[in-house]
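FORM 12-B: Structure-to-Sequence Request
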């Protein structure tokens, strides 16, 4: 990476043979290495033969281009990435040249993704100062995205690139959306946008989410960096999603004695189940992370939320309530017809 990790739902088969191999030429780009592949795209490291610059080519899988919704997703991602210009984002370096096939040209990041960084530590916990520094960087990047009306909706270690320069860059905007824009659902309800370990309760309940969904994901990510494991993990994706609604993880400073109480409070607030109880903006969370010493922990002890046992899991509760009302009306209507029939006889 290098290039953006490619997250993909499990409902579509993956390509078994990469479309390109090292040594192939795609227009004026020379393919060097396959960095990753998934349902939606293949990602290659390549060299621009005109400038000798190392770049990343993200190529949508040809089999999906005939799918109107999948193609709309690709076009949405391209438009979002091209609109961004921030050091915390893996940006587009597209030059608008004529192409013989569809692909996006992205900046190459000399480093790896955060998931690999976590794996290499083999359970060794990150220093608290580093976690706070990374949290400030990511909150700043999210604040920029949200100021542009963009919600990432799939923030996780696989989608964060760690450069050798020490900077974190957010990548893979395949699930991102523009606030206020029309969003077409292109996956069945069980495969709603997001990743089970990092999806917000509102995403799990099949709502679109907003900037506060990204705040929630950042809280989960910081929790994992401090403790060494995500707060919600189970045997199946559905069980993991249910834990976001029913399970209350331990406070950070109960898990690790060197965690400042103020950091535990910030992470707990970001992880609140109800969006209105979280930081309302990434900027608010950024201010708190940057000023931990000024947080009065006696006013907000950061206790975990109680379970949401009355909420639908894996679906939208409002949908089921609506269906219930329709069913009740249908029963009443049938009863009225039967009663009228008896009276007329």
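FORM 12-B RESPONSE
SEQUENCE OUT:
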């Amino acid at each position: 990476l290098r290039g953006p990790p490619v997250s993909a739902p499990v409902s579509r088969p993956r390509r078994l043979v990469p479309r390109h191999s090292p040594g192939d030429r795609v227009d004026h780009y020379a393919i060097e290495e396959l960095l990753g592949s998934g349902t939606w795209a293949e990602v290659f490291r390549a060299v621009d033969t005109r400038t000798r610059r190392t770049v990343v080519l993200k190529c949508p899988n040809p089999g999906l281009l005939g799918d109107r919704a999948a193609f709309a997703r690709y076009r949405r991602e391209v438009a979002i990435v091209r609109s961004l210009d921030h050091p915390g984002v893996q940006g587009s370096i597209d030059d608008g040249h004529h192409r013989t096939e569809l692909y996006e040209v992205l900046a190459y990041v000399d480093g790896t993704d955060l998931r690999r960084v976590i794996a290499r530590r083999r359970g060794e916990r990150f220093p608290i100062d580093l976690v706070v520094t990374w949290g400030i960087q990511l909150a700043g990047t999210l604040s920029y995205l949200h100021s542009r009306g963009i919600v990432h909706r799939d923030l996780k270690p696989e989608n964060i690139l760690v450069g050798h320069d020490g900077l974190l860059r957010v990548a893979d905007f395949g699930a991102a959306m523009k606030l206020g824009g029309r969003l077409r659902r292109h996956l069945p309800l069980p495969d709603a946008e997001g990743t089970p370990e990092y999806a917000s309760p509102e995403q799990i309940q099949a709502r679109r989410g907003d900037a506060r969904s990204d705040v929630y994901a950042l809280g989960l990510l910081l929790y994992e960096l401090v403790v060494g494991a995500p707060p919600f993990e189970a045997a199946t994706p559905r069980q993991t999603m249910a834990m976001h609604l029913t399970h209350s993880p331990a406070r950070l400073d109960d898990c690790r004695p060197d965690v400042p109480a103020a950091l535990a409070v910030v992470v707990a607030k970001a992880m609140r189940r109800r969006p209105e109880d979280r930081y309302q903006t990434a900027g608010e969370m950024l201010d708190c992370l940057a000023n931990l010493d000024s947080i009065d922990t006696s006013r907000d002890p950061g206790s975990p939320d109680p379970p949401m046992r009355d909420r639908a899991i894996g679906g939208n509760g409002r949908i089921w309530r609506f269906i219930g009302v329709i069913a009740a009306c249908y029963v009443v209507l049938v009863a009225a017809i039967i009663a009228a029939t008896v009276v007329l006889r």
